[in-house]
Structure formats: structure tokens, C-alpha cells
Amino acid sequence: MDYKAFYKLSYGLYIVASVFDGKKAGYIANTAFQVTSQPPLVAVSCHKKNATTPVIEKSGIFSVSVLKKEADVSIIGQFGFMSGDDIDKFRNVKFETFSTGAPVVTEPSVAWFECKVTNSIDVGSHILFLGEVVGSGIISDGEPLTYRYYREKYKMLAPPNAPTYIEKEKLETEAPPRQESADIIRNEDSGGSYICTICGFTYDPEVGDPTAGVGPGTPFGDIPDNYKCPVCNAGKDYFKPV
Questions:
Q1: CA-to-CA separations, 66 to 48, 143, 201, 221, in angstroms, rounded
Q2: Contact in structure between 204 and 193 (CB atoms under 8 Å)
Q3: Hey, which of 11, 48, 159, 167 would disulfide with 147, CB 3.0 to 4.6 Å?
């Protein structure tokens, strides 16, 4: 099977959010799409392990914020690679509430929808929620962010809970290593700095990362494979040489 064929399917990037009993939850989605026009229905695919899933199930509401092309990758790291069970994802984010009460992330977004769940379908690893659109709005005329643009600009893989997740090993068996892989090897030999392509955190080998038990003078290639970005919790594979 040629797994890269899946990259030819088109997606946007969105923040899906909900609230129940005062608890707000949200995640990065690339499978929000319109299903019908009469009535206007939107569907979102939510991983069963996402903290947002039970919130939508209990509340029966959700919002969809369409991210703009120039969105800071840090918000993708915050909503896509960290759990709402560990942090308050909405702490430093601009959002509003409308008729349903679901939080609507307005920055950095170009449009929004709020929906009431009309049906849900168990599709294996994910729950497909269908919601009738009861409110929507345009925030700006900016261009929306697409998953293809995000993937190609930042050379990113989808997070494990995403419907589009493909194991890195499967992709690597189909094609020769990308050029940046060679760059990583060379940079590890030179002991250079590495930057997290999700949030922009820079690992400086002269400083190390005391919060993770990595002492000063440790080259990036020598830190444990299970190392996580201290800012957005992205894995080591999401770092690139500066």
C-alpha cells in the first residue's frame, strides 16, 4: 500500500471545542466538513482517547473554528499535542460564547460554526459527531490553513490521535530518507541547536533541559528518544536543526 496516497486527500485545520459542567475542552481537527445543506450539518471526527470526546457526548454541542493560514504553530501544539486533562488550553486564547455556550476560538481564525449534535457514529478509533449548525460567522477574509500547507511547510507528521495519522516507519519504508534527515545527522555531529517545529522552543545543547533531566553539554542526538518538548509536549521527531 502506498500510504502517501492519503496525502492527496484535502483537509483544513480547525479547533473543535465544547464545554460541559464548566469544563472547556478542545483539540486540533482536520476532518471537519459539511455533510448536508438542508439542514446544514457539519461532521467532526474525534478520537475516543481525546479529552474532548466525552465532553461533546455529555453536552451535545461543539464549535468549529477555521484556522487562518498565518496561525502561530504554538496554538497547534497547545491544542493538538497537549491534553486538556493536564493544562487549561483556553488560558491564553481569545474565545467567545454564543447561543450554545460552546467556546469559539476567534484568534487565530477566519470563521466559526457552533453546532448541536444530532447523531454520533462509532467508526473504530474515532467517534463521528454530526451537528446541525445553529450559528456561524466570518472573522476575516484571510486564507484558511490547510493540512497540506502545514505538513509541507513544517515537514510535520499528524499527531497519533489524528484520523490521518500514519506511522513514520510506514512512510520511511516507501521512500528514501528526506534531505532533512541527513541534515539532522550532520547537526547532531556538530552539537548544534534544535527547534521544535510545533511551538518554536529551541533546545540549546550548552544549556540542556534541566526540567527533563538533560544536563548542559548534551548534544541533541544523545538525549533520550522519549524526550518531549517542555512547552508543547511534542516528541523528539518534531525537532529540526536550527
A1: 22, 10, 25, 37
A2: yes
A3: 11
- pTM of the predicted model as reported, rounded to 2 decimal places: 0.76
Using CA atoms, how far apart are residues 68 and 145, in angstroms rounded to an integer?
5
The set of cell numbers assigned to 30 is: 482536520
CA triple 47-123-151, angle to 5 deg: 50
Same-domain check for residues 71 and 189: no
**For residue 237, what is the DSSP state?**
G
Q: Do 109 and 175 lie in a common domain? A: no
Residue with cell 524526550: 227
Rounded to an integer, what distance in angstroms lies between the CA atom of residue 62 and that of residue 102?
A: 6
Q: What's the domain count of the chain?
A: 2
Residue with cell 484556522: 67
Q: What tens digit of pLDDT does each residue of 18-75 get? A: 999 999 999 999 999 999 999 999 999 999 999 999 999 999 999 999 999 999 877 8
Task: Indicate if 48 and 134 belong to the same structural domain.
Answer: yes
d(CA 96, CA 113): 12
Model pLDDT for residues 203-219, shown as the tens digit of each residue = 999 999 998 899 999 99
Domain co-membership, 141 together with 178? no
